[in-house]
Amino acid sequence: MIKRIKRKKTRTKEAQKYVGQIPGTLIYTGQKANKNFIVECFDYTKNNIQETALVNIEDAKNYKDTESVTWINVDGLTHIDKIQNIGEQYGLHPLVLEDIVNTTQRPKIDEYEDYIFVVLKMLYYDKDENIVIEQVSLVLGENYVITFQESEGDVFDTIRERLRLGNGRIRGLKSDYLMYALIDAVVDNYFSIIETLGNKIEDLETELFAGQARENTNIEVQQLKREILKVRRAIFPLREIINRIEKGEHSLIYQRTLTYYRDVYDHLIQVSENIDIYREMIWSLMDMYMTTISNKMNEVMKVLTIMSSIFIPLTFLAGIYGMNFEYIPELQYRYGYFVLLGVMLVMFVALLFYFKNKKWL
Amino acid sequence: MIKRIKRKKTRTKEAQKYVGQIPGTLIYTGQKANKNFIVECFDYTKNNIQETALVNIEDAKNYKDTESVTWINVDGLTHIDKIQNIGEQYGLHPLVLEDIVNTTQRPKIDEYEDYIFVVLKMLYYDKDENIVIEQVSLVLGENYVITFQESEGDVFDTIRERLRLGNGRIRGLKSDYLMYALIDAVVDNYFSIIETLGNKIEDLETELFAGQARENTNIEVQQLKREILKVRRAIFPLREIINRIEKGEHSLIYQRTLTYYRDVYDHLIQVSENIDIYREMIWSLMDMYMTTISNKMNEVMKVLTIMSSIFIPLTFLAGIYGMNFEYIPELQYRYGYFVLLGVMLVMFVALLFYFKNKKWL
Amino acid sequence: MIKRIKRKKTRTKEAQKYVGQIPGTLIYTGQKANKNFIVECFDYTKNNIQETALVNIEDAKNYKDTESVTWINVDGLTHIDKIQNIGEQYGLHPLVLEDIVNTTQRPKIDEYEDYIFVVLKMLYYDKDENIVIEQVSLVLGENYVITFQESEGDVFDTIRERLRLGNGRIRGLKSDYLMYALIDAVVDNYFSIIETLGNKIEDLETELFAGQARENTNIEVQQLKREILKVRRAIFPLREIINRIEKGEHSLIYQRTLTYYRDVYDHLIQVSENIDIYREMIWSLMDMYMTTISNKMNEVMKVLTIMSSIFIPLTFLAGIYGMNFEYIPELQYRYGYFVLLGVMLVMFVALLFYFKNKKWL
Amino acid sequence: MIKRIKRKKTRTKEAQKYVGQIPGTLIYTGQKANKNFIVECFDYTKNNIQETALVNIEDAKNYKDTESVTWINVDGLTHIDKIQNIGEQYGLHPLVLEDIVNTTQRPKIDEYEDYIFVVLKMLYYDKDENIVIEQVSLVLGENYVITFQESEGDVFDTIRERLRLGNGRIRGLKSDYLMYALIDAVVDNYFSIIETLGNKIEDLETELFAGQARENTNIEVQQLKREILKVRRAIFPLREIINRIEKGEHSLIYQRTLTYYRDVYDHLIQVSENIDIYREMIWSLMDMYMTTISNKMNEVMKVLTIMSSIFIPLTFLAGIYGMNFEYIPELQYRYGYFVLLGVMLVMFVALLFYFKNKKWL
Amino acid sequence: MIKRIKRKKTRTKEAQKYVGQIPGTLIYTGQKANKNFIVECFDYTKNNIQETALVNIEDAKNYKDTESVTWINVDGLTHIDKIQNIGEQYGLHPLVLEDIVNTTQRPKIDEYEDYIFVVLKMLYYDKDENIVIEQVSLVLGENYVITFQESEGDVFDTIRERLRLGNGRIRGLKSDYLMYALIDAVVDNYFSIIETLGNKIEDLETELFAGQARENTNIEVQQLKREILKVRRAIFPLREIINRIEKGEHSLIYQRTLTYYRDVYDHLIQVSENIDIYREMIWSLMDMYMTTISNKMNEVMKVLTIMSSIFIPLTFLAGIYGMNFEYIPELQYRYGYFVLLGVMLVMFVALLFYFKNKKWL
User: Fold this and answer.
1) Domains held by chain A: number
2) Residue B271 located in a structural domain
3) SS3 for B5?
4) D58 secondary structure, DSSP code
5) How near does any CA of chain E get to the CA of A351, in Å?
6) How far is the C-alpha of D42 from the C-alpha of D166, rounded, in Å?
7) Which of B225, B237, B226 is nearest to B280 (CA)?
8) Domain CATH code at residue B72
9) With an 8 Å Cβ cutoff, are D22 and C308 in contact?
């Protein structure tokens, strides 16, 4: 808990720094500072592929106007000067560069004349089972795709593999298909995220169905609610973006890849629907928890009521014959005590039956 | 309970396998493995009908370009190679084949140049009274309809019968009417599903109206809520699909069948409305349950309060005269004991009246 | 209660019969079997009117192509063959006939080339104060309106009267005005239905405002909720229907009657608004009921707490001096008993003041 | 309370009378019968103004076709024949006249060829602080505006004053500006209504924030909820009406007044927003009330628990030494009694600390 | 608390004054009376900048038709005559002037032929951590921007700095970019506002997660709810405004600045999304608080039940042997007392185990 709040405050400070800056000023707003800066580069045609790690940033421009398709992947957003350098080589608008390093950015698409800029969110669970949201920015040009990520490690390994092996369609098609493949990889990964969420919800539900309300069950429910909110916010705007691409009005997106984008769109709708169902289920969980608490209180009250209702009248009876009046005839009877015990037993049994009858026992 | 959760985990594993695959890779994501693979084939004109069980998959292509209308029904989606084979014979897009075997697919329609691909969900109750959702994919071509189901057993028997007997319009019309008939059979079946749901809700409501809140009533309410969510999700997207067909822009759908599709659409709206009403009723059930619990607690509290409020003061009185002070004048009175008993009786009756007056008795 | 549920089950059975039938098969799905079959017929021009009870169904076609306007009203939907007969005489589509006898139909409009088919719901309270929904189907042709009702008794008597007397515009205008008049009569009747509903809500509210929560108050609230749902569902779709008529694109609706349809539309909006307000008020009633229960429980708890808190300490004191220690100095004091009684009185009064102060008394 | 319900029932009876009447039948549905019938008339140009009380209704038509702008204000809707008379002089549609006297009318606009008919609601608080809704109907013609009100007393005095004094633009512009001025006066008055509502809400909130939940707080909250519903319903439809006027498609509305109508529209949006905020705040009030009740019950329970938990064990101890066993060694000890008192004191203090520790004290 | 309510009443009085005034009458409705009236003026081209404090209002018109871009910033809205003076010099519509001084205005845009009028809200926290909303009105003309603020102190200092230093694009572009820069500064400031809100929510959440429900937690939650409502209402309408500017239909907004306005729009969407998420989180907080209270009550009940259930039966036993029957055999046994103590101990331990088993201990 404490860690998250601290992190939050850091973000506040960053954001404060950001307020009032000249538009187009590059400020990295994420929490992954001091990371390495890595630029990997895939340059391929149908028959050839060349994989390089770009050490000298200046070399990036070599790939700009070639016939071959190039994927430049940049890991690490703290090296602002280098990102600015790449931006200048590829003629990116200052606001685009600002959005690349501002990781609190909402998923968005900006269509410029000779390139398309897309921001989306990559989700994964870290080792403490918290959802981590990492921003991925894509720039799609005529013959290239540039991706910017906050840190190393991503969901693109299968694409790297497919590029190297040259199986599937990927090597034979243009950069718009590459962008599709990258977005598809991100979206496919959403499925495993929401399934983990779904399993968490089911576990809690099973627990509550069994009537086991642990003390921190409601905290877990609240945390799930927040995770859902987080994921929703990262995923939902993407639908609109893909929808806009799919309409196919930008010349960089070819007719033949539209079917693929529509497929991604269908997947996103499915993810979104699941998220909304999970959300509704979480609200139900809270209801379940409340009724479980109420049921427990009912049970406690019943025990109290049964114990009190049985023994308080009996104690009263005992009190009667504990009085010190000089003349209480019953006290002199030889078997008075036993008669009274019998009466008490009868009362006891009668009350038990009464509560049994009320289904309190 | 346990079974469902286990099943869920299986699905997770399947889905994980699916992540990162090349688009167009066929992976069966359902739970009905090791089932038979059956292909039945109805080939008919107005006057003739021929019913065959296709043993050799390669024969499927014989029906493609004939004048007669052909319905090929495939049961069993685990035999991926055979499905791929049929797909190739009929020129289906790889993404279509992927969707056919991916049974977590949302109901959808994809319109291609020479065929229409529709995914919908068939619902039925299994023997444990759980709702089972089975995916049915339809491919409508010029002279054929191909249907893909996860397993044997479906709601199409009446259609088979009508085809064989040749009554009604079905034999005299084209493949678009056949597809309508198949969809109509699925939708008609939804009515019996939601009526079963409705009956379950009414039973619970009657129970709650009678003030009988069993311990697991809230669990049943939650399970109904989930069933409704499941059914909603399987049925609602279909409206949009039929709406698109009904707009009649695809050349495969003839003008004269549009009235029939509009009729299906009306039925779907009716089903959807019922589902939404049931949903609202279930939320009310939860409210009912909560008030029932509260009322019960009230009753418990009243018993406790009445018993305590009557006997605690009386016990106090008895305690007074059980004290051992040397000089307590009342104790010496000849009829002190009886006077006290009288006083106690008066108090007892007075308190009873008091509670009667408060309507607690 | 029991009766309603039974009725429901009957419906289920009917519906089951319906599933899987050939589209266009006529099956009556209502509960009003074995009723009479009555056909009344008004044939009128501006100057003449002729009122007949059609005994021979075949005579219906005589009115089809006359200059005069004809209103044929059919009561009783179980005589399917006769309805089919009328349908054939007037050239109605099989799906229209199916919708006429399927009384679970949602209000709808279907525009055919030479007639318009409208389904709506007539509402009234039966003698047990339950809302009954009866389906009325209208077919508007060039010179005729045919209405189909489930049973005798309707809201059209004022229209019959106006037709006979020839006052107002009705006799001078065409069949489209007749249909307007019929729909208007149905909609006007909605007002009295929702006013009865409104009165029921107000009564419950007054009761709850007075703090009187009877045991079955929540049941009544739930039943009102269901009634509202029922009424909503019967009325709301009609708005869309009138809206479509009002747009006036069908040649059977003349320009001059559009103002009247717009008036009906305004009335429907008003009814709908009232329904939504009542709905919100019912939700508030449930809240009211919950707080009333909570307040009552609070009151119960206070009585318990006051009684216990006053007498338990006093009983303890009495217990102290009931102990049998050989040496308890206070017991020997001459006025020990009276001093103790005084102390108890002081404690008693002090506690009373304490609770008075807390506003619990 | 009682009065409101009675009033309601009267309305029901009126409405019942209304059902089934010939469209265009004039029935006054308000509660302000037996009021005076007053017709005042302002006839003005830029330079002259003439103010008359029309005694003879027939004189109304004199103003119809003059060059000067005329405002005819009619107070009292029970004199149906006179209203019909005016309607005929100005050529109003029967449905318009029906709407004028039907005060349960929803705010609406009807555009006829040579006049515009607007119905809106004037709100004010009566002397019992209840919101009263009075219907105002406006008919805007080429050179005249006719207003119909249920009774004397309105928000138009400032406009009368401005007409008499001739300051501002009002005398120099046409009838469309006059209608604007009248509507603006009504809308301006809404602000003071919702501010009174706002103050009521704030007062209740302050009370609840201070933890003072009076017994009828929830009743007041419910009544506020109903007032908001009432006001919402009277005001919200007006937005759409002004919006339609502002679109300026009717030739009676001149280009130069559109800015003014847009201004009214902005005011209405502001009022609507406030209403929605107040509505949300009222729902929060109910929540506040519920938690206040729960907190109070918690407090009651704590007192009970503390008193019981302290004295019940002590009483038990006293009970032990009140037993009459022949051999209880402690009873013979010289200072047994004082030792026991000491033990009890220690227990008492220990329990106090325990509860203090739990923050229950 | 008291202060806020008083302030509110003042506003009511102001508003009352406002009702019924001639449209276009200038009335200042804010709370910042008696403030200074300051007019500062920046007049700049790409190469020069001149900063003046306008003492003589009449000088304002000198800047109207120059080539250079002029920013006139007016602080203090109580000097209505002076504002009217400026308005006349720049040809502003009377309704515009009315809106400038009416600070209860909703954010809005009015497009006139040669200027655009925008009203928006500047938010900041005052020293008591309350959110203050200050209205800022902007008038954008061909070569000028005039801003009107209620009082000194704003978020525009960075813009003043950038103007003076001439870095960034601002000096080289037209007045439409200046307006963008001003709006952007206001929107950027929203981020810090909502982050403060977010921190408050997180603090409360952490507290509730730790189970610490202070007595006034619900009051704080309610106040947060109100703050969110306030902020929502100030910010949300701005989206629509920027959207309208971005559509770029007004000739005063040049093509090249549209990208910047779109960027502001994206920021606003992000702020709005955060607000909606916070809102949902606050509702969850209330739920959390309710469950925390319920859990506490459960705990209290358990203590009561355990204490009562253990000691009431034991007290009964002691009562039995405190009775004064002449013949109670157990009393004569030598070790009767010790045996009974043993029995009591066993009961005590058994009950402890019972409650342990139920997880109440």
Assistant:
1) 2
2) yes
3) helix
4) G
5) 15
6) 12
7) B225
8) 3.30.460.20
9) no
Residue B16 has phi, psi (to 5 degrees) of: -60, -45
Could you tell me if residue E74 is inside a domain?
yes
Q: Do B230 and B82 fall within a single domain?
A: yes
- Partners of residue A40 on adjacent β-strands: A53, A73
Do A45 and A70 reside in the same domain of the chain? yes
Could you say which DSSP state residue B326 is in? Answer: S
Rounded to whole angstroms, the Cα distance separating B140 from B245 reads 12
> Domain boundary residue among C244, C264, C292?
C292
* Cα-based distances in Å from A274 to A228, B16, B221, B230: 11, 16, 21, 10
* Whole-angstrom distance, CA of residue C342 vs CA of residue D128: 53
Per-residue pLDDT of chain B (361 residues; tens, 9 = 90+): 333 333 333 334 444 445 556 676 777 777 665 567 889 999 999 888 999 998 888 888 888 888 899 999 999 888 888 999 999 999 999 889 999 988 888 899 998 888 999 999 999 888 888 888 999 999 999 899 999 998 888 889 889 999 998 877 888 899 999 999 999 999 999 998 999 999 999 888 888 888 776 777 888 888 899 899 999 999 999 999 999 998 877 888 988 889 899 999 999 999 999 999 999 899 888 888 888 888 888 889 999 999 999 999 999 999 999 999 888 888 888 889 999 999 999 999 999 999 999 888 7
- Together in a domain, A277 and A313: no
Residues C310, C189 share a domain: no
Quote the CA–CA distance of D197 and D285 in Å, as a whole number. 14
Instruction: Give exposure, D312-324, as e/b (b: 16+ Cβ within 10 Å).
Output: bbbbbbbbbbbbb
Q: Where a domain ends, among D276, D292, D308?
A: D292
The number of beta carbons lying within 10 Å of the beta carbon of residue D56 is 7
**How far is residue D210 CA from its own chain's centroid?**
26
E105 and E196, same domain (yes or no): yes
Choose the mutation target among E246, E295, E316 for the interface with A, i.e. most A CBs under 10 Å.
Answer: E316
Q: D10 CA to chain C: closest CA distance, Å?
A: 11
Task: Tokens 């305690």: give the residue.
Answer: B319
Provide the pairing of β-strand D116-125 with D131-140.
antiparallel
Q: Which residue has the tokens 């088979």?
A: B160
Alpha-carbon gap, residue B209 to B292, rounded angstroms: 9
Tokens of A136: 């991925």
In a domain, A157, yes or no: yes
Q: Could you identify the residue written with the tokens 């008696």?
A: E34
Q: Are E231 and E194 in contact (CB under 8 A)?
A: yes
CATH at C313: 1.20.58.340
Tell me the C-alpha distance between B188 and B264, whole Å: 9
Largest CA distance in chain A: 120
Return d(Cα C252, Cα E165) in angstroms, integer. Answer: 74
Say how far apart CA A267 and CA A194 lie, in whole Å. 13
**Co-location of E311 and E325 in the same domain:** yes
Question: Residue E243: in which H helix or E strand, if any?
Answer: helix E217-246
In a domain? residue B6: no
Residue E85: exposure state from Cβ atoms within 10 A (0-12, 13-18, ≥19) = middle
CB < 8 Å from D in window 162-191 of C:
162, 167-168, 181, 184-185, 188-189, 191
Q: What residue in E sits closest to A297 (Cα-Cα)?
A: E298
Alpha-carbon distance values, E10 to C316, E32, E346 (Å):
59, 12, 72
Report the distance separating Cα D32 and Cα A265, nearest Å.
61
Nearest CA to C246 out of C231, C268, C274, C272 is that of C268
Which residue range(s) make up the domain with D173? 18-292
Residues of chain A found within 8 Å of residue B296, distances taken between Cβ atoms: 298
Whether C250 and C334 share a structural domain: no
D175 shares its domain with D238: yes
- What is the value of ipTM here, to two decimals? 0.77
Residues with Cβ within 8 Å of B358's Cβ and at least 6 positions away in sequence, in order, are none
Are the C-beta atoms of E92 and E81 separated by less than 8 Å? no
Distance (Å, whole) CA C137 – CA B169: 26
